[in-house]
Design brief:
One of its GO terms (molecular function) is pyridoxal phosphate binding. With about 425 residues, the protein is an alpha/beta fold. It contains 14 helices and 19 strands. The structure holds pyridoxal-5'-phosphate.
Length: about 425
């Protein structure tokens, strides 16, 4: 069941995308009697058979708890789990012992909030958070601010959905201790220049947290070179199972942080007069982890690598270009976000149509888009809208599916009057 290092559909500079798509069983199904057009990958990605099989194989042949039992199954489970950590580390170009495995970005950012920020911040300190953050990169900072007396400052955006970098750098004054910014916006698709931003923050001694949830599935990543202090990601958006994710930080940063959750697996010795914690990253991994999920995530990383992240990014850019061109032709359709560097996410509204109504009618045509506020209320407040529809693409989508979305919008619109 080993995943080949190069996918058979990749040869020379060419990728047979139809063959890649055939790896995804769910994409073969119908919805409401129509072929499914799945355009909600920013929400969660679909899984290739290689990932589903890896999870299935674990439960059928290797299931045991990790890091506890000396029997054969226990060793196999531990080795497979740790192999996934190594694979993910290689994928991100970081060291395995600098990668905390956790349930996803939400947990990863909360870990930073409770273990790094809470013991350090105090009244008079400030946290800068960008306007385009997902709630997972806003609410934990609000909780820290409430408990420490620190304040939150908002890094604003331009109308095209790019960060106002001049204003951001001017905001990085001495009371700012932490800057939280997304690598790629889940609503606008904006790709932020995180390397430059982290460099500016570092010059001022400000700790940086980058939310990589929407970057890791879509572009080649070299986390070590970004220069951030923390990088969070979630596995289910990158072809892996739900309930998997990771937090990267330098070893010395992790070593200096107290554990966040206590329990088994995260200790060396427990006595009633004091407990010796395990080394990082294990001291942050209390309790039985989502072992099968991480084995699936290891397979997902192998799978994405076998296609090549540069190929994936290029493919998604062609889908974005096609969708932007075709959607822009629709009268009364407004696209939110036109950053110069943009990932394959298009949020839009149609004049006179409520986004939920539109998404419901699109669903009847088999087209799955998300509608609502996309866990980004402050961003929608900036644009003065209550909701948008969001079509988000992955490499397994096709240009015909873009056309199907456009046709379904025209049909829905007629129905909406
Ligand atoms: N950050 C961004 C930019 C996201 O798009 C998401 C998921 O939608 C999250 C954070 C939260 O990820 P999870 O729910 O997997 O923890």
């Amino acid at each position: 069941m080993a995943i080949p290092s190069v996918h058979p559909a990749v040869s020379g500079g060419h990728v047979d995308w139809a063959r890649i798509r055939a790896d995804f069983p769910l994409l073969q199904r119908e919805v409401h009697g129509k072929p499914l057009v799945y355009l909600d990958s920013a929400n969660t990605g679909q899984k290739p058979a290689a990932v589903i099989d890896a999870v299935d194989d674990f439960y059928r042949h290797h299931n045991a708890n990790v890091s506890r039992a000396v029997h054969a199954l226990g060793s196999e489970a531990t080795e497979a789990y740790e192999a996934s950590r190594r694979k993910l580390a290689k994928f991100l170009n970081v060291r395995p012992d600098e990668l905390v495995l956790c349930s996803g970005t939400t947990f990863a950012i909360n870990l930073v909030a409770y273990s790094w920020a809470l013991p350090r911040l105090k009244a008079g300190d400030a946290i800068v958070v960008s306007r385009m953050e997902h709630h997972a990169n806003i609410v934990p900072w609000q909780l820290v601010a409430q408990r420490t007396g620190a304040t939150i400052k908002v890094a604003e955006i331009h109308d095209n959905g790019e960060l106002d970098l001049d204003a951001l750098y001017a905001q990085l004054t001495p009371e700012v201790k932490l800057l939280a910014v997304t690598h790629v916006s889940n609503v606008l698709g904006t790709v932020n220049p995180v390397r430059e931003i982290c460099c500016e923050a570092r010059k001022r001694g400000i700790t940086t947290v980058v939310d990589g949830s929407q970057a890791a599935p879509h572009r080649p990543l070299d986390v070590a070179s970004i220069g951030c202090d923390f990088y969070a990601l979630t596995g289910h958006k990158m072809a892996g199972p739900t309930g998997t994710g990771a937090l990267w930080a330098r070893k010395e940063t992790l070593d200096a942080m107290p554990p966040f959750i206590g329990g088994g697996e995260m200790i060396k010795e427990v006595r009633f007069d004091g407990t010796v914690f395990n080394d990082a990253p294990h001291k942050f991994e209390a309790g039985t982890p989502n072992i099968a999920g991480f084995i699936g995530l290891g397979a997902a990383v192998d799978y994405l690598s076998s296609i090549g992240m540069a190929n994936i990014e290029a493919r998604e850019q062609t889908l974005l270009a096609h969708a932007t061109e075709e959607l822009s032709k629709i009268d009364g359709l407004r696209i939110f976000g036109s950053a110069r560097e943009k990932a394959a996410v298009i949020s839009f509204q149609i004049a006179g149509a409520h986004s939920h109504d539109l998404a419901t009618l699109l669903d009847l045509e088999g087209v799955a888009v998300r509608s609502g506020q996309h866990c980004a209320h402050p961003l929608l407040q900036f644009f003065g809208v209550a909701a948008t529809c969001r079509a988000s693409f992955a490499f397994y989508n096709t240009h015909q599916e873009v056309d199907a979305l456009v046709a379904a919008i025209h049909k829905s619109r007629r129905l909406l009057g």
